[in-house]
Amino acid sequence: MTEEQMIAAAPEGCGECLPPNPVEGFLRSERMPHIWCPGCGIGTTVNCFARALLQAKLDLNKVAVVSGIGCTGRVAGYVNLDSFHTTHGRAIPFATGMKLANPELTVVVYSGDGDLISIGGNHFIHAARRNVDVKIICINNFTYGMTGGQLAPTTPVTAISSTTPYGCYEQPFNLPNLAESAGAVYVARWTTYHVRQLTHSIGEALRKKGFSFIEIVSQCPTLYERRNKIGDGLDMMEYFKESSVVKHGAPTREVGIGFQGPIVVGKFVDIERPTFLDLMDKQMTRTLDAHYTGSVVEQNVRG
Amino acid sequence: MKRTHADPSGVLTGKHFLDGDQACCEGALAAGCRFAAGYPITPSTEIVERFAQRVPQIGGMFLQMEDELAASIAIQGAVWAGAKSFTVTSGPGFSLMMEHIGYAAMTETPCVFVNVQRGGPSTGLPTLPAQADMMQARWGSHGDYEIIALCPNSPQECFDLTVHAFNLSEQFRVPVLVMMDECVGHMTEKVVIPPAEQIEVYPRRYTTLPPAEYQAFKAEADLVPQFARAGEGYHFHVTGLTHDEHGYPAMNVEPQRRLVTRLMDKIRCSADALARNEEYRLEDADVVVIAYGITARVAMRAVQMAREQGVRAGLLRPLVVWPFPQKRLRELAAGKNFAGFVVAELNCGQVFYEVERLVAGHVPVLLEGHTGGTVHKPEQILDTILRCANVAAEVSR
Amino acid sequence: MSAVEMQFGGFGGQGVILAGMTIGRGLVLYENYHVSLTQSFGPEARGSACSCQLIVSREPVLYPYMTNPHILVALSQEAYRKFSPNLRPGGTLIIEEDLVRPDGHPEGVQVYKVPAMRLAEELGRKMVLNMVLVGFFTAITGLLQPESARRAVTDSVPPGTEALNLAAFDKGYSCGLAQLRVPSPA
Fold it and tell me: Are the C-beta atoms of A162 and A149 separated by less than 8 Å?
């Protein structure tokens, strides 16, 4: 779909003379302005997500967005879909229950690095291991934005945070490597600079069956950049532009990010593996044969 | 609200010899629960082991999660997708689930938590009974909220009250806690499961409004909002933040007052209707024993022994412990001059304080506590009944 | 009648809990008794020693735990040693003849010995020892009709094994009846 077609397909805009924004129908405009700071990268990613949804031609009544807590956790509140703002770290198990209870839904988890990988890290690896068919969009801004810029499991070594005032000395997680090791079938990383590639990747993940993970390296001008004296949002975009290297299929163990170092981006993993429900149905059918009645959806959702 | 009857596919009608854990599972299935998530923990695991065995043959699933945090939120994801859902745990697992009891209360997610209580604190006594999580059930998550908690005293009641728990969770859109204990959970007795058409099931309060008119948290007259599930075009929002009637975050004094007050009032205003008490020989009682769950059975024996010794004792057993049956208790306390109330429980004083709060100044209240690991001996409760009667006799002399 | 307390003890793998369950099921479902069955669930009860206790009454059972059993069934020396001192005076002790050497139970206890293992082996399956025991128990105690006990056996054993287990029950039952006709060797 071209930009013009998208515009034509989009709902009525609010401006008198401006053409309507093609993604406006996907946002709860009554909830604007959003809470994100000027220069924050999260809004950019939401725009990409909306465009990817539009292009994927999914029935938007069957798409649910689940967030945890944090700046990115607020995404659920702004998208005009069934949306669930859950507890800190627990978006993935909530999404797991939702997807398994009604497999007709496309369930997207949209949250931050601290939420998904620190407090929610255990759920992340287990959902990947099970290959639950949920899509994980993880905004990595290297810090806890909402609570004031504390150390995250992604903070690069030597970077300053409010709880590592003398510089971080903990090894951060390499998220694509973690996702692949735990069993994700689709793993990609982009930055907020790579809007077209990111939109494309989200589209792929939406169509992919299984646990799909997209890391979006994003800027936090208010806390991360300011505290580390690396400029504002625009400076960070410059950094993303200058320091990103596209390497599709790069071995994920080689894509760790150092402080202001190179960022390897691209699609790293795209494999086929039966999902949790596929395997459950197969095993239950093998064991129970005609006594197996299929999953929850039959009983409760259609019933 | 129209009531419906149980789906026969989940109802194991007949007379059985089951333990409390198995009976609880059958109650969940009879109530229409087809989704459970859990993490193994003694002495509750047998509930989901049975569920895992039974449910694939009647259209549902059991999901073993990585921990209790995951289990207690996975069930809520399933609820919003349209399933009836529960989780079961004990001791340390119950502590881990506290945040999600609060989330269910705040988001008005109808679901059931079963806690087969064991001795604590911490790892405590994994295989032995206690009733020391009663205040945790009431207050364990942060903030002001109300839940409903039920205490079965037999495998039969584990079935009956689990069905009731699901119904109340749907009616009030609250998490309902079934507070069993290890003794009841592992005790095998007769359990009669009625035919499906005799089991009432409270249907989910699905909205009848079109999406344009629907507000996800706009309450009806009974202070409970209508429900929409994901995937039906309502595009609603659910959050654990303080929210307005649309479900959108509204973090100010007034929305907080409105929301929290409603969440409390929807239970508090129905407390009298929710009460379910068993009363035994209260008509002429001088000493009233208040006990719940397994302890109430032992207390009934103690009451009989006291009667044999000429002390007029009686028993008040709340089946619904939260909200506490305060109206009945105050009524009782105001009705006559009692020698005293004895609260018997497998803890060092929890419901005791609730009773004391309600009747202090009218009736002396004695605690017959126990640190758990077994149930009281009837003689222990009898001693306190006699002490209560004697103290009163001394005073009146 | 007032409550009858009974205890079944042995070691893991003998099916002693299932024996107790089967008796309890028969009493509840086909004889209309109230029964409360509890098991030892401590870690020490897993693997080696295990036991279950039944309170049987015409009235609802209030206090759920056994205090002093009227009837003890011991399938191991350890269970015999551990539990028999609790037996009530005049109580009944049922032991597996080859597995238990009775050398220290209270006086005045009526002892019955059943060669359950050998009888089970005659059927070619040692594992049905527990249903031999159920048959023997049914004959000795007279608490439940043999037909009730047989139905409970059918309810309690894995599908497909009913005939074998009923054969085991019948062997135990006959053995018990035979002993009732002669004075007990105790």
Answer: yes
